[in-house]
Amino acid sequence: MGWLWEEPENRWSRLGLAPGLHLRIEAERGGRVEQYATRVDDVTTEALRVLALVRGDSLARISPTTPVHVVYEHDDVRWHFSSWSLGRDREPGRHLVALPAVVEPFERRRCFRLLTFLRPVAVLRLDAAPARARQPGGLFLDAVVVDLGVGGVCLSSGSPAARGERLGLHLRLDSDVRAHLRVVAVEPPPPGQHRWRLHCAFERMHPGDEERLAHYLARRQTEMRQRGQL
C-alpha cells in the first residue's frame, strides 16, 4: 500500500520530499487533467510549499481544495501521491499542497492511479452499530472517489471514519462495481475545510467486478497516454 507516514523523524526526506525536488502536479480543470511542473521550496508541518506552477510557457494557479496528483523521482524510483491544493502561499510566487498520508511507488502496470471525481452510488459503514442508523447520515457516507486504482481508492468524505473500519462501496463505471474496503489512513480536513480524506484498500471484491475495474482503468490509462498525460 505504499508508505503510511506515522514516524515524525525524517519522514519527508526519507522519501525525497525536500527543497529542490522536481514535481509534476496534475489537477482536473474544465473536465480535463492538466499538468504543471514545479519544485519543492520547503516542507512545513502541514504542507509542501512549491515554487510557481508552470504549464507550457505560462504560470498557473490551482484553487484551494482542488484534488491533485503529484509524481516525482527519488533514488531512481518514481513515486506518487494524492492530496489537495491549499492555494497560494503568503510569500509571492509560492503555492501550498497539503501533506499526504500515503506515498506509493509508481509502477505503470501495477500502481496506476486515476485522478478522478466519481460520486459512488453508495458508501456504507459495514461495522456501524445499529444505533448509528438513527444518527444524522445514518449508515451511509457522503463521499466522492478522488483517486482510484486496482488496489484501492481515496475518498473525499463529509464525515470521518476510523482507521481499520470496513466500508461497502458501490461504483458505477462502465458497469456496476461493488467492493468491501478497509480504511488504512485518514487525513483530517485542512484548516477552514470540512472534508476528510479516507485512503482505503480493497478487501473483498467479486472476480467479475475486479475484471471490470481493471478494464476500466486500462482504458482510461490508454486514453491519458494518448493525450500525453502520462
Please give the structural blueprint.
Blueprint: E1 3-4, E2 22-29, E3 32-43, E4 47-51, E5 53-55, E6 58-60, E7 67-74, E8 77-88, E9 94-98, E10 102-105, E11 114-118, E12 122-125, E13 143-148, E14 152-157, E15 166-172, E16 176-187, E17 196-205, H1 207-226
Antiparallel strand pairs: 1-10, 2-3, 2-7, 3-4, 4-9, 5-6, 7-8, 8-9, 8-10, 11-13, 12-15, 13-14, 14-17, 15-16, 16-17
Quick recap:
The protein has one helix spanning 207-226; strands at residues 3-4, 22-29, 32-43, 47-51, 53-55, 58-60, 67-74, 77-88, 94-98, 102-105, 114-118, 122-125, 143-148, 152-157, 166-172, 176-187, 196-205. The chain is mainly beta.
- In whole angstroms, the N-to-C terminal distance is 21 Å
Computed over alpha carbons, the radius of gyration is 18 Å
Q: Total strand count, please?
A: 17
Please trace the helix and strand order, writing H or E for each element.
EEEEEEEEEEEEEEEEEH
Number of helices: 1
CATH class of the largest domain: Mainly Beta
Choose one word for the global shape.
globular
Let me know the largest β-sheet.
7 strands, antiparallel
CATH architecture of the largest domain: Beta Barrel
